[in-house]
Every structure is written in C-alpha cells, then in structure tokens.
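Proteins fold reproducibly. Look at a concrete instance:
___
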Amino acid sequence: MTFNAKEEKQKIITFIRDYYQKNHVDGAIIGISGGKDSGVVAGLFVEALGSENVIGLTLPCHSKETDQKDAQLVSNHYHFPLYNFDLTNIYDAFKKELGNIQDFTEEETKESDINLKPRLRMSTLYYFAALFSKLQNKTYLVAGTSNKCELYVGYFTKGGDSVHDISPIADFTVEEVIQLGKELNVPEKVLHKTPNDGLSNKTDEEKLGVTYKAIADYIKDPKKVSDKDKKTIEKLHNNSTHKFVIPTYRRTK
C-alpha cells in the first residue's frame, strides 16, 4: 500500500485536536533535538494547535553545538519559542556525587551514563510543562517524538524518552516520518540529518547494528530482510520486551 503522507498528516492533526479538545488541554512542550523526529512533531503540533501553544526546549548535555543550531532552525521556521536549558552541570554534579559512593570505571558506568541523560531531559520537560501551565493558566502536555522503528527494537530509555503524554508519530517508520516532514516543510537540513542519539557519539544505526530501512522492511514483511538483519532485529526486539509492559501482580479473589 502506498503511503499517503498528505492524508496521514491531516489525520494526525485531527487526532491531536480531538484529543486536546476532549481532555480540555491546551499546549505542547517538545524537546527539540535538531533531528527529523522532533522537527516533524513540532510541525504537527504547530499546525494542530498554533505556534502560540507550542514551546520547545533544547536540553544539551555534553552535546554538539550543531544540534542546538539545528533546533533553532526548526523553532525559527515554525515561529514557536525555544528555550535552552543546559543539563551539563547537572549531569556532572550527579557523576561527582556518584564518585562519593565508589570510584567506578568509565566502562562500568557507560550504559548508565548514556541513559541518565534522557532521564534528566524528561524530568526537565515535565518541570517546564508544569511551570508554563501555571504561568499561562493553561495545561501543557509533553509530546513524544519516537518513531515506529525505534520503538520496535526498544531504542529508547525507560523513564526517559519513553515517558510522554501524547505520541503522534509512533506508528510511522523513519521513511514515513521523512515523507510527513516534506509535507510539513521541515527544514531540509533537519529532515535529512543522520540520526544519532546525541549521547554516545555514534549514529543510531551504528549503535543498533542494523539500518532503519531494514527494520521498516522487517516490520512490513520479515522475508524482505537478510537472515543477519532478521536475527539482529529479533534479538533487539525480544531483549526489549520488558520496556513495553510493567508486570503488575493482581490479587486473586
């Protein structure tokens, strides 16, 4: 089936408007990374709610300066305010306090360090959602920016970018997100930027060991991908199932 980006864009916008109206909420807080996913989400919310109801945050944490500049491109293009809240000192203070417990090696803390950053970012997004809700006397929700390929292989952090109030692009592959971005006129530099987490100095695909195209092909039909890619994707997916559902004990009557 051919993907109709124009039609899907309108459906997402209607979805956002209907949800906001039904739940009596007003604005959106979006973490703007300078990449295509957050750029597309910003474009969708601006069209759905108006730029006056969208607030963007850049949340650098030992990050590349170019990411903030690309985020500013998105903000300038869609005319919504963009605030920069640098988490570097907060992260460093956390690491310093960790050193008071034990002198862990860099290798020992590597994965914990990478996951700490999105958790700090999500806490900050919710802080500002509450702050601006109070200041402007209207309710702001935190928008999620994960796409279908990332979610399928568990490429997100529990308690970090997995946390949000509304998720507009979670059912779209990377290529579909790009097509939506074209419909939304997301700046070209942002839309075609090589995806990376801004945390580990590696591209997404380098970290995953498989391309987003292969993941998208697998989701549509596992027979379309090589045995090597199939094995990698299935391992990533199966090892991430704990991220999707929290097991809850229920008492028997």
Notes: Strands lie at 27-31, 54-58, 82-84, 140-142. The radius of gyration is 19 Å. The longest helix spans residues 106-136.
